[in-house]
Design goal:
The chain is α+β, with helices and mostly antiparallel strands and about 120 residues long. It has a single domain, classed as PH-domain like, CATH 2.30.29.30. The chain contains one helix and seven strands, in the order E-E-E-E-E-E-E-H. The chain has one helix spanning about 85-120; strands spanning about 5-15, 20-30, 35-45, 50-55, 65, 70-75, 80-85. It has a seven-stranded antiparallel β-sheet with strand order 4-3-2-1-7-6-5, covered by helices on one side. The longest helix is centred in the last third of the chain and has 33 residues, at about 85-120. The protein starts with 6 loop residues before the first strand and ends with a helix. Regulatory subunit of serine/threonine-protein phosphatase 4. One of its GO terms (biological process) is DNA damage response. This is Serine/threonine-protein phosphatase 4 regulatory subunit 3.
Length: about 120
Amino acid sequence: MSDTRRRVKVYTLNEDRQWDDRGTGHVSSTFVERLKGISLLVRAESDGSLLLESKISPNTAYQKQQDTLIVWSEADNYDLALSFQEKAGCDEIWEKICQVICILCENVLYVLLFSQLVCLPH
């Protein structure tokens, strides 16, 4: 993998509805025990510090915009964006987000179906 493929700028939307640059780093997706789920992590390219730690959730409306931008809201009035240097990196992370959401939704559906089957009268 080229060093630039997952290179991103992290942005947050401020109260004036302007995007603030939070830094440049490299994004990865990994399981975070504390959050009990697959999360997006961005480590600063300057010193390796954590710029972003965001658990991927099926309750979050992720949007892919243009070819190199992924945006979402973490909580009320806390919007985030990842701006990728390369389209390939954006596509890769977007696909990972979609896979994680699909798996989580399938698990919920399975639990709902199973609980209904168990509760059926005999």
